[in-house]
## 1
Amino acid sequence: METALWSQNRLTRKLGVEYPIIQGPLGGFSSQRLTAAVSNFGGLGSFGAHGLTTSAIKEVIAEIRSLTSRPFAMNLWVSTEDRGARSSGKSEFERSLGPLAAHLAALGVTSPAYKPFAPIRFEDQARVLLDERVPVFSFIYGVPPAEILDECRARNIFTIGTATTPDEAAALSDFGVDAVVASGFEAGGHRGSFLRAAEDSLTGTLSLVPRIVDRIDIPVIAAGGIADARGVLAAIALGADAVQMGTVFLSSKDSGASAVHREAIRSGRAASTGLTKGFTGRLARGIRNRLMDDLNAEGVEILPYPLQRALVRHLAIAAEAAGQSELMPLWAGQSAGITVCQDAPEFLESLVAEISGPAALLARWNKNFRQKRSESKEKIITDEK
Ligand SMILES: Cc1cc2nc3c(=O)[nH]c(=O)nc-3n(C[C@H](O)[C@H](O)[C@H](O)COP(=O)(O)O)c2cc1C
């Protein structure tokens, strides 16, 4: 009874899930098993597919469907390249390779050869999601074209956009997206900003969520820095309809992260994270290490996304194989190490048990708070007239 009071809201009812808990997409580190495990538990598992070809995306969807009959989300990046990616040439490539050359040599790896840019098209990737009629289509870095959103509605595909500012949340809502992730500064991975520069869109979750809740009428999902019961309860108190957690699930045994990466997230080193464009060309958060410091150094030239990503990946693969965690991107948010998640269903089980009682009280309190707030807003408007 207590559980039903807090967990069933306008979002969970629309999604058809038991709990307002989303395992965030982990582009490059998602796994079909983790996605399905979270969905089977009654949350919403997500798979980050932005780096995959259309045929690989189709295979991933089929495998997730073989592991769960519950709703799950497939996630893409609306914008797949930055300005300058097409015109960037061999000399730019060599200048950006410079700071990595000593690390490659230390690992005994030859430098990557220059390859001209090969674009990935969001529209082609989205086509697969539409044809497969995935239950939920979540995205970051913008608003999909109207035809794609129309087709989602026609095919009963629930859409979730990502906002790093209230203006982005309003834009997503105006274009008819069904729900919005409010992604605070603490979050691991990329800042999905699309209206202003990511560097100017760095509000923390505690301030961002209520601002977005006050601004739009569609469901809001709080993300960034949430890793345990305290975080979930705080998000509910801020008015969020659900939470999305990434870093904590990245540390679980079923994520696509390597053992070296998972170990780093669980270690004391994870207490220090930073933002960098050096890993991919776009601003993102990871654990501070030698590679991040080297690439954040003044004067280092970073290629536009996704060229920098390909360059660093070459080093990362070798560093990972050699167990050299100082020389690979260690994606993680500020919540890294707050709690440990070894097995996702076990983690979720104890999370739900811990939050159920207080969450029910908070959900009730929040309803009253919203009611009072809208009455006082109406009063202000009437008094002003
Ligand atoms: C390694 C990693 C990869 C991520 N990839 C994506 C992605 O492809 N698309 C997306 O919408 N969010 C992505 N995220 C964001 C998460 O889904 C989630 O919103 C975020 O991690 C929540 O903040 P937290 O890390 O503090 O839990 C990624 C996060 C991490 C740590």
## 2
Amino acid sequence: MNVFLISHVADLDGVMPVILTDLAFPNYDYELLDIGEVDAFIQSKLETDFFSSYDKIFITDLGVSQKTASMIQELSYRDKFQILDHHVGNLFLNEYSFAEVVVERNHVLESGTSLYYKYLLTHYSNPNLLKNSVSYMVSLVRLLDTWEWKKYGVEEANDLGTIHSYYGNERFIQNYTQFLRKNREFYFVEAEKVLIEIDKKQREDYIEEQKQQMIIKEIAGYRVGIVFAEQYRSHVGNTLAEIFKDTVDLIMIVQINRSISFRSVKENVDVNHFASFFGGGGHFHAAGAPLPEDMKEVLIQDILSKMVEK
Ligand SMILES: [Mn+2]
């Protein structure tokens, strides 16, 4: 069994499927991609018939466009593909037999990792996958990705996110494929506990600073709190959305080197819809969009235009 995994590069929910793949299959290759890269990647690989040598191709925590989906549909080996995603904007993919997009089931919010884990348990179960440490870590990833950890007070989910941000994707994958093979129960080692504690303090200070600098604008009938925050995107967004819930509808987090994110905690504010104004999407209360391509150039020109001659 030779597996190819395509998953989301940007967060833990996209990275955890690599670890699960490692535990489930002896032979696999993977590619972590951003949302905007998936279609071009798959289409270029289809041209060279790259996927035909694999037995199964999983696409997790990501969707494909209608065009790419119909290209897969045309293939004689389309059944080798399995998309497992939870983004509301990808629900249309459920018309294809190779896609399973579930946002919520039995009042539980799904994530890319939780859907993939269930799929593996159903079709490729093994003793590794059944360990407490694995199922618990999957639940932490789901709680973090859906931000339900806040609702249930599962601080460990947030802590795992902290460890991921320190380790980075590669080291995180390397560390946890070994850890989960060795351990029946999940825990943090002492060094990780120290990191978690230091990071907590740093994060609180950072959010406090962002709070002071938030700019409020009216955009398309919404009151939007805008911050320029390169770090702690979800924490900044969710914490400010909560603090300012009487003043703003949503928080817009601009990461100059990355993208724009939107967060809300209001029942009647759909940031997935709001993100679509900017060519993005995501979930009801958490979404993202690309930055304008020329933004850095515009910014530089603006700075230069204010130069005083000397
Ligand atoms: Mn996700």
## 3
Amino acid sequence: MQTLDYNDKVVMITGAGSGMGKLAAQNFSKAGAILAICDVNKANIEAVAAQLREEGCEVLASAFDVSDESLVQKFVADCLHCFDKIDVAINNAGVLQPIARTHLLDLEILDMQYKVNIKGVFTCMKHQITAMKEVNNGVILNLSSVAGLGAAANLSTYSASKHAVIGLTRSAAVEYGRYGIRINALCPSHVDSPMMDSAEKESHINKENIAAANPMKRLATMQEIVNAMLWLCSDYNSYMNGTTIAIDGGLTAM
Ligand SMILES: NC(=O)c1ccc[n+]([C@@H]2O[C@H](COP(=O)([O-])OP(=O)(O)OC[C@H]3O[C@@H](n4cnc5c(N)ncnc54)[C@H](O)[C@@H]3O)[C@@H](O)[C@H]2O)c1
């Protein structure tokens, strides 16, 4: 029987310096994976890598911006050089926008959403797929959001970027299914992560109010989202392709 065992699997995770990416790195390491992790925050990614190495995990770590194609290409090449393959890629790096109505947003906010959330995911997918296609095998999981499935008032550019992640996911899934590459998108609702903490501090939103609006009357924990990642990317889940999976306490069922 196939299990959630990641022994000998090479797992690339972007945005692994904090939040769900960091927790995912720790969980995939515990499940036996070899890791290739990156983040734009150098101090954070180095600290995560040091801790994982102390625990015996084989780790390639690098600090760069996922929207810089030459650096993404180099990281994928370094990963192939060190480990020969990429079995799983989780494109998790992302940024939130300031919480505000559309007419109040500067165009720089839209540019930033495009740069990290769309161009970053596209660039990573492009080079991951190139590597995976060589061996007719691979799994890619892109972090979208419930904001990618429907309206997100006061988050219009973020919502647009997360809709785009779903478009990239679905199109690539159809293009590369024939090569044994499965590509899906994960759509969490509000997760109690550093991103939410910053939003609470900077944009004066209130986690309690957000929790009250969810059918389960709480935010998701990061572990609940990472649990889904572990299953979605495993051999146990071998026929899911081009799907968007909401882990949202029932929010999108309302
Ligand atoms: N927290 C939530 O409520 C929530 C809900 C739905 C979806 N998501 C998505 O989940 C993902 C992870 O979110 P999180 O809550 O763990 O946030 P987080 O802010 O804790 O982590 C995001 C990480 O991405 C890194 N990053 C940002 N821009 C980057 C870039 N250009 N290149 C490389 N790394 C970059 C950051 O440095 C950070 O370490 C994001 O894509 C986010 O949009 C989050």
## 4
Amino acid sequence: MDGIWAKIKATNFFKSIYRNDYPDTPRSRVQVILNSVLLHLHPVKVPKSAVKFTYTWGLGGSSVLMFLILTITGVLLMFYYIPSIPQAYFSIKGLETNVTYGMFLRNMHRWTAHGMVLLVFLHMTRVFYTGSYKPPREFNWVIGVFLLLITFLLSFTGYLLPWDQLAFWAITVGSNMAGAVPPAEYVGKYVRFALLGGYEVGQSTLIRWYTLHVIALPLTAILAMAVHFWRIRKDGGISSPGESGDVKE
Ligand code: HEM
């Protein structure tokens, strides 16, 4: 068996995938991280204190997990949902009653969305509490605020899609609030028009928010997350207790 394994490892094909030897020295371990497209997003070295669960509470990672679940369940929902006023509500009703595990799928998406808002907020609270927004991580805090905004916008645009009374009136209230941005005559009026695709909530609003919800916002979130993770690495990995904040172990 060892002989076959040694032969496989000697092939050019194997070497084109795994460019390093078995990672058992500090140098070969660093090389494995640097040579992998996925692993290189991660810092090469992580201080022991930073992986202590009660430091990060896994809140950033859990936010990513929520995003992944939302992407998978969201794509599956797209197989059934129809973004047109006469059909939107009934496509969701049909999904709940006629499709196997349809209600489960819808609820997975909905509850995970609530979970993501909560977890991102808690993650931000942790970052604040441990003082991890301080130098050199100020810019990552700013990207974080942007991610928080995207998370809210994803939730809000998704809210309209079932086209039930709750959705319709929530969007009416929300877009009227946007319409009040001062000076309303010059800013609010146009923001409201852009959001609604007209003067009142209707088909143009639905298709606009659907496109934002399934394409524009998720892609922006993915891009912002990539920068967020890359920044963590460039800022020397996750902060350590007492390093940037006032909190000591
Ligand atoms: C979609 C939303 C977000 C995702 C998926 C995300 C993901 C992550 C992950 C995985 C980490 C590694 C450490 C950890 O798990 O706690 C992290 C760190 C960090 N995040 Fe976020 N984050 C998000 C939103 C935010 C927000 C809203 C803020 C602040 C306004 C923020 C600021 C930071 C900072 C400053 C760090 C570095 C913390 C340190 O070094 O201790 N992030 N983020």
